[in-house]
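seq as requested:
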Amino acid sequence: MEWKLFLKGSEELIQKTCEVYVRDALAGILAQTDEGYEFSYAQEYLLDLNAQPVSLTLPKTGEVYFSTTLFPFFDGLIPESWLLNVICHKKNLETGSI
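struct tokens:
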């Protein structure tokens, strides 16, 4: 995960971004902004006719998906309880940062 700072007009927006891979291919970028979450497919992934969508709820399209909450597909991938604690400990992360 990476932090980026964007300027929008006179406002500063802090954004967390995460690359999303499907079978070792960069499928897209998931971003957390001040307004919510965005997911967009990588152009090269869109052009690959054999590449499957990340989720049935996120069909391959050039549009940017937006949600005020984390998309259910990605939310379901986040570990919980003791497994979350183990991963955070190994990666030196705080549980609230995931």
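The first strand starts at residue 2 and ends at 8.
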